[in-house]
Amino acid sequence: MATIYDLKPRFQALLRPMAARLVQAGASANGVTLAALIMSLAQGAAMAFWPEARWPLLLLPVTLLVRMALNAIDGIMAKEHGQKTKVGALFNELSDVVSDAALYLPFALIAGVNAAFVVLVVIASTIAEMTGVLGPMIGATRRYDGPFGKSDRAFAFGTLAVLLGIGLAPGLWTTIILAAMLALGILTIWSRARRGLDEAAQ
């Protein structure tokens, strides 16, 4: 199923020169991953501490875009510049899950937003990522199947943040969006599990 993740090769091509410059400057892939994690935690903290403020919401799409760029850059540095390590692979997967939780759970603190759905979406997202990571354990590759992978979640929550940030009052429409996100998250878990099993069987 098509997903925003399919655009990753083009995105990486744009960032490849920057990754090379960072390597030349002595930066490490793990350092870039850490920077993305710290930025995500700071953004999440701002949303949690000021749930009624609009500026953290309007800042979120920028943070998500920068995070996506850093995630692509650390991958390029690891795979194309000899910085791939087991520690880095573990750190990368864990930081993604922690960052998602830090960036999205604060939506539950916004008055009028259905907190239960926010939590369920984050839980489904975590399970989806775990399902993808478990691919190698059953003889398959790491699965990134959609329809609601990391990039898609970033787009959905970023759009939601902008709508709330420009002053739209949360209500039934936010609940419907979150319910749709939950359904897509569950479908993603099923898709990754099924495709992983199919790949392993072959």
Automatic annotation (TrEMBL):
Segments passing through the bilayer: 21-41, 103-127, 154-187
Listed name of the protein: CDP-diacylglycerol--glycerol-3-phosphate 3-phosphatidyltransferase
The enzyme's E.C. designation: 2.7.8.5
Top-tier EC class: transferase
A GO molecular-function annotation: CDP-diacylglycerol-glycerol-3-phosphate 3-phosphatidyltransferase activity
Superkingdom assignment: Bacteria
Source organism (scientific name): Methyloceanibacter caenitepidi
Keyword Glycosyltransferase on entry: no
Annotated InterPro entries: CDP-OH_PTrfase_TM_dom
Key words, A-Z: Membrane, Transferase, Transmembrane, Transmembrane helix
Keyword hit for GTP-binding: no
